[in-house]
Target: PP4R1 phosphatase
Amino acid sequence: NMDSALHYIHDSDLSTNSSFSPEEERKSKVQDVVPQALLDQYLSMTDPSRAQTVDTEIAKHCAYSLPGVALTLGRQNWHCLKDTYETLASDMQWKVRRTLAFSIHELAVILGDQLTAGDLVPVFNGFLKDLDEVRIGVLKHLHDFLKLLHLDKRREYLYQLQEFLVTDNSRNWRFRAELAEQLILLLDLYSARDIYDYLRPIAFSLCADKVSSVRWISYKLVSEMVKKLYMASTSTFVVDLMSELVEKFCRCRKWSGRQTFVFICQVKCLFVHLFG
Model:
């Protein structure tokens, strides 16, 4: 079972052995976990000539299997797969990059925080600027990946969350809906100050989305945000947020804005905090 195996790896004491010297990184791709010929055969799947003679999607198959191979070899043998992973991450076929984007959070659990910060974060940053077909892979598991990073590194992505509001196709509303879902999960990873400064503007923007499905998820996001700020030690953030809700939506000249305020209150009985 992949999930249980990943959980075991994450909780084991292997996390203390996740750093390698440059000399070890340059070692030949030799290990003693599986037959070396089998590993060599797998690594050769990134050879462009094989795509022409064997299977045009062989690189995609290689990318799909990589987390399983990494789990089998263990993080101590990551040097065997690192070059292959970077080759796949820069593959010209977006389907190959998309496959890696959907599994990068699983690979991060296998490799541990140090290897993730050194080898996966640069790839992750590249995927954030890729096509929407690739970006959706990291977006769907944004919380799963960011929670594995140290707080200082995690905060760096607060400045980039706004970029998920922009897509190649403005009609791709599912992208914005997924962003709202992920922001609900991200509330647990950031401080009240970060939530108010960075997540609040995005949430308000999503509440005014043209697509109702996006707005409904955003109402839940705002209500959870109020709850999070209400429970924080600093009360000024929740007071300011609720004041902004009243000003922006409750007193809005358009009926749709006033309706938004009612829906937000309905989700989590927000009126108890506002008027109770």
Observations:
- Confidence is low (pLDDT under 50) at residues 4-18.
- The chain has 17 helices and no strands.
- The two ends are 49 Å apart (CA to CA).
